[in-house]
Design a protein that fits this description.
Shape: globular
CATH class: Mainly Alpha
Strand content: under 5%
CATH topology: Arp2/3 complex 21 kDa subunit ARPC3
Number of helices: 10
Structural class: mainly alpha
Oligomer: single chain
Number of domains: 1
Strand order of the largest sheet: 1-2
Radius of gyration: 17 Å
Helix content: 55-70%
Length: 199
């Protein structure tokens, strides 16, 4: 992953400004990765299945909560101010507060629950899977609630367009985020400072 290159920048970690700068560059690189994954989408009914959830799960599984939250908030901020980071190269408040906005804001809960569950079990496939599973459920629930308010349709219709189509793809992304996240982290902690992954 290109983001790890920024971790190895030849700056002294004894200088606080350099530490923050390296963290910022890492967050920027991971946000670019998240944005690229968002462009992978399959349109089903009114809501598209995208690679965003996989990217969020992978990042949150691999990196510490500060970096994970930093990426999600920076991603939302860039999209809100008009950068084309969301699905289909879209951006702006009109997209963020449209029918799919709940799923985007739901990423915050994804990261929150995943880090709560993994906490001191950062290298466990079991806890990573459970964290990604709960994170995905939280994202879908928040997205459906948002969708119900936005479309003003019955719960049955909302579940049909906002939940059921995502069950199988969601499970696949949970497995991929877990397997790749833990596998890559076990490799990277042998090369780079562990603070990026555990603190």
């Amino acid at each position: 992953m290109i983001a790890v290159l920024y971790i190895y920048l030849p700056f002294s970690d004894s200088i606080p400004a350099m530490i923050y700068f390296k963290h910022f560059l890492l967050i920027v690189a991971l946000t670019i990765f998240l944005s690229l994954c968002a462009q992978i989408n399959i349109n089903i009914y009114e809501i598209a299945i995208t690679g965003q959830t996989f990217a969020v799960g992978l990042i949150a599984t691999m990196f510490n909560k500060k970096i994970s939250f930093g990426v999600v908030f920076f991603y939302i901020f860039l999209g809100a101010v008009g950068f084309s980071v969301f699905s289909n190269a879209s951006g702006g408040y009109s997209v963020l507060f449209a029918k799919t906005g709940g799923y985007i804001f739901g990423f915050i809960f994804y990261v929150l629950f995943l880090h709560i569950i993994m906490n001191k079990n950062r290298l466990s496939y079991t806890y990573a899977f459970l964290g990604n599973f709960i994170g995905t459920i939280a994202t879908l629930i928040f997205g459906c609630i948002w969708l119900m308010c936005y479309l003003d349709k019955s719960l049955f219709v909302i579940l049909k367009i906002g939940l059921y189509p995502f069950i199988i793809p969601g499970f696949i992304k949970i497995c991929l985020s877990t397997l790749f996240g833990i596998y890559l982290k076990k490799i990277l902690i042998k090369i780079f400072d562990r603070k990026y992954f555990f603190v």
